[in-house]
Amino acid sequence: MSAARLQTLLGLHDEELLQILGSDPIAVITGEEDLRPEVRILLQLIEENPPPHVWLRTGNPSPLQRLLQHDFTGFEDALADYNERGFIIRGRGPSRPASGP
Q1: 51, 69, 70, 76: which has the highest count of C-beta atoms within 10 A?
Q2: 101 found inside a domain
Q3: What confidence score (pLDDT) does residue 43 get?
Q4: How far apart are CA 8 and CA 11, in angstroms?
Q5: What SS3 class is residue 5?
Q6: Per-residue pLDDT tens for 88-101?
Q7: Are the C-beta atoms of 39 and 6 separated by less than 8 Å?
Q8: How many CA atoms, within 13 angstroms, populate the side-chain half-sphere of residue 16?
């Protein structure tokens, strides 16, 4: 289990991974962060069924925003909702009825 694997599965930029872990590049490169419970838990949550990268950046607050704010419970709730309902894309305005032939 590794921070690099977490970064790949979630499609995180380097700066995002560092902020989520509250870490520095050297700690990630040397593997120090691989032993953190947050890394292990997040990998266990997403490894079997990783969500699409776009899901991480969708919503308000988005799952990514929750991770960046260290709201791991909120991220886990969002992930549970995704696993239960899937990735739902909502329209921006009222839907129009289909026009006739």
Answers
A1: 51
A2: no
A3: 93
A4: 5
A5: helix
A6: 766 565 555 555 55
A7: yes
A8: 15
Residue closest to 66 by CA, chosen among 55, 76, 75, 56: 75
Asked if the structure places residue 55 within a domain, the reply is yes
* CA 79 to the chain's CA centroid: 8
Would you say the C-alpha torsion 89, 94, 100, 101 has a positive or negative sign?
A: negative
Helix (H/G/I), strand (E/B), else coil: 61: coil
Q: Which residues neighbour 58 within 8 Å (Cβ) at sequence distance 6 or greater?
A: 87
| 3-class state of residue 73 by DSSP | helix
Dihedral angle, C-alpha 26, 32, 36, 40, nearest 10 ° = 100
Structure tokens at 75: 């991220």
On whether residue 18 sits in a domain, the answer given is yes
pTM for the full predicted model = 0.79
**Domain range spanning residue 63?**
3-85
Instruction: Give the number of domains in the chain.
Output: 1
